[in-house]
Specification:
By secondary structure, the chain is of the alpha+beta class. It contains nine helices and 21 strands.
Length: 401
């Protein structure tokens, strides 16, 4: 009899040992495909491509027939490990030490996928597999540019007649302990680059030059103050951060000709893409007229603003059946009432929300992307039990027991 993948630690070890640093798959999706085959999943492996980007392997697998359809989503690609010598253990070795498994992707988010599989395997083994359909939508392009991943995989599946009633995304959501937090939405993300033009010259003869950094300082100050807002009922305050300032100038006695300034805004539901762009454009236009930092220079600061695509929209999931089922499962297993949060960065939920309601719940994220990323084996077991309970609970709520 075929052994089912009921042990999340074994599942995770097999996935960690595939060094799937974006955009390389390194065998991770094939490993997952073989893992879920005994559970009755039929898998497809579409590869998406676009000029200027790497080809990306993806996986879509489905088990079950008609009835309610639950999607379990995630990614097998991981960020680079950094200096491997700085790790306590091989970053792709899946070593176990003091009750924890070490490896890149242990938390973000091969651990979540390993628990998805183990939860489904336990339900199948107990004869409790849901009567509806369950699909796994797994990309290899979440940590990269996200061009050839989830967005295209969703369109590809939809064109083949797939439709979903709800999705659970297994990203790490808990700040400190299992049961802390469920993500029910995300702030939007908008990025822009300002190029300020001046006149290059010798620093000893500033009257013959026009230092673009002076103008950039005025524009930058206008971006960050006053604050964009003080938050909303469901979201943290919107926040703008200047992330790079560059002149390309290595000389200490030369006034540069241009300077570029890049900023990113994480915005809440008090803004749309259009209203936020209008606010920023207005601030810059007013600041360009301020000559306080450019004494003796005629005319406004000369600049160009370029908005970067794509823009991630703000969203909030309002689906009580989905959110309550997950919260009840978390509470039943951990004894804790999870916060329903919209904090943090973006995730592939921003694409999934256009197809069905989506919530996020996974492991404790304290070590994600860090040297010595690791997950407690007890947390893997806890998450597996939560996922199994949630799957059963959600389908029961849909009338598919």
């Amino acid at each position: 009899m075929t052994k089912l993948p009921t042990d999340p630690a074994e599942n995770l070890a097999a996935l960690i040992r595939c060094p799937s640093v974006t955009p390389d798959d390194a065998g991770a999706l094939g490993t997952l495909e073989r893992m879920i085959a005994p559970l009755g999943f039929v898998s497809e492996r579409p590869v998406f491509a676009e000029d200027g980007t790497a080809d990306i392997e993806n996986l879509y697998a489905r088990r079950g027939g008609d009835g309610p359809h639950l999607m379990l989503a995630g990614h097998t690609d991981v960020v680079p490990p950094g200096d491997a010598a700085a790790w306590s253990h091989d970053p792709f070795g899946a070593a176990i030490d003091a009750g924890a498994m070490y490896g890149r992707g242990a938390v973000d988010m091969k651990g979540g996928i390993a628990c998805f599989v183990a939860a489904l395997a336990r339900l199948v083994e107990r004869g409790e597999a849901p009567a509806g359909a369950v699909s796994l939508l797994i990309t290899g392009d979440e940590e990269g540019p996200a061009i050839n991943g989830t967005a295209k995989l969703l369109r590809w599946a939809t064109e083949r007649g797939e439709a979903w009633d709800a999705c659970l995304l297994g990203e790490p959501t808990n700040p400190d302990a299992m049961g802390d937090m469920i993500k029910i939405g995300r702030r939007g993300s908008l990025t822009g680059t300002i190029t300020v033009s001046g006149t290059q010259g010798h620093v000893a003869y500033p009257h013959r030059a026009d230092n673009p950094l002076r103008g950039a300082l005025a524009l930058g100050a206008a971006l960050v103050a006053p604050p964009l807002d003080d938050g909303s009922a469901e979201f943290q305050p919107s926040n703008l951060e200047i992330t790079t300032i560059d002149t390309g100038n290595r000389a200490t006695n030369v006034i540069p000709a241009t300077v570029t300034l890049t900023f990113n805004i994480r915005f809440n539901d008090r803004w749309t893409e259009q209203t936020l762009k209008a606010e920023i454009e207005g601030r810059l236009a007013r600041a360009a007229e301020d000559s306080a930092l450019r004494p003796g220079k005629d005319g406004p600061v000369q600049y160009r603003l370029d908005w970067m695509a794509p823009v991630s929209p703000v969203f909030l999931t309002r689906n009580a059946a989905l959110t309550e089922a997950l919260a009840q499962s978390v509470a039943a297993v951990t004894g804790r009432t999870p916060a329903l949060s919209t904090s943090g960065g973006t995730s592939d939920a921003r694409y999934i929300k256009d197809y069905c309601p989506v919530v996020e719940f996974g492991l404790v994220g304290r070590t994600m992307h860090m040297i010595d990323e690791h997950v407690a084996l007890d947390d893997l077991e806890t998450l597996t039990v939560i996922y199994a309970d949630f799957i059963t609970r959600w389908f029961a709520g849909q009338g598919a027991e």
